[in-house]
């Protein structure tokens, strides 16, 4: 059996966000954070590690936005528990002058190969990472990139609802593990 954990980004994922919908429709579990508004990297990574360690089941992560950066930090520096694969959706690129003060503790980004399969989903008009920047993250993490076209930050503001295209990408990612989420 494979367990799916969602890892929301800054501010969490509201009820209309595809992550929240997937949790309701498919029983995925959310990695909860103590503070969604003023994220602390150390705390987010510790919460992620604790959530992964709560089960002996194989784990696949579905991260969005800043949650992707937390997963990258965890994968490069902590890894106390195994993860099979990660679907990273709309990871922000945090190397630049426009990084909000609240996110400065997530800098520098970890840009090393991750020890699990990584599928990065990017939008061609994401305000937080250009396709070129998303490709740099993919190259560093040793993953694969899927460009889903103009979908903004691939969040509830993008009007995706349950985002069937993303769910199909997750199913393809899970296929090697013979799991039907």
What can you tell me about this protein's structure?
This protein has helices at residues 18-26, 41-53, 66-77, 131-141, 164-174, and strands spanning 2-7, 29-30, 58-64, 85-89, 117-122, 144-147. It has 181 residues and is of the alpha/beta class. It has one domain (2-177): Rossmann fold, CATH 3.40.50.1820. It has a 6-stranded parallel β-sheet, sandwiched between helices. Strand 1, helix 1 (18-26) and strand 2 (29-30) form a beta-alpha-beta unit. Helix 2 packs across helix 3 (66-77). The longest helix is centred in the first third of the chain and has 13 residues, at 41-53. The radius of gyration is 15 Å and the shape is globular.
Short description:
It comes from Deinococcus roseus. The chain has 181 residues and is of the alpha/beta class.
From the structure provided, what is the oligomeric state, counting identical versus distinct chains?
single chain
Which architecture name does CATH use?
A: 3-Layer(aba) Sandwich
Count of helix runs: 5
State the strand order across the main sheet.
2-1-3-4-5-6
Distance between the termini: 10 Å
> Which fold name corresponds to the CATH topology?
Rossmann fold
CATH superfamily: Alpha/Beta hydrolase fold, catalytic domain
Strand percentage, roughly?
15-25%
Q: Level of helix content?
A: 25-40%
Radius of gyration: 15 Å
Class per helix and strand makeup? alpha/beta
Instruction: Report the average pLDDT across residues.
Output: 93
């Amino acid at each position: 059996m494979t367990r799916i954990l969602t890892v929301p980004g800054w501010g969490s994922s509201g009820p209309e966000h595809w992550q929240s919908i997937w949790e309701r429709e498919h029983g995925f579990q959310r990695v909860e954070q103590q503070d969604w508004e003023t994220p602390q990297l150390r705390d987010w990574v510790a919460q992620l590690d604790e959530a992964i360690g709560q089960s002996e089941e194989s784990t696949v992560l579905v991260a969005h936005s800043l949650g992707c950066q937390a997963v990258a930090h965890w994968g490069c520096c902590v890894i106390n528990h195994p993860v099979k694969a990660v679907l990273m959706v709309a990871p922000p690129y945090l190397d630049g002058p426009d990084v909000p003060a609240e996110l400065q503790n997530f800098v520098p980004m970890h840009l090393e190969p991750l020890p699990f399969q990584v599928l990065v989903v990017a939008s061609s008009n994401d305000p937080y990472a250009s396709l070129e920047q998303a490709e740099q993250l993919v190259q560093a993490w040793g993953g694969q990139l899927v460009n889903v076209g103009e979908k903004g930050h691939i969040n509830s503001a993008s009007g995706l609802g349950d985002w069937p295209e993303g769910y199909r990408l997750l199913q393809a990612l899970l296929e090697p593990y013979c799991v039907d989420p």
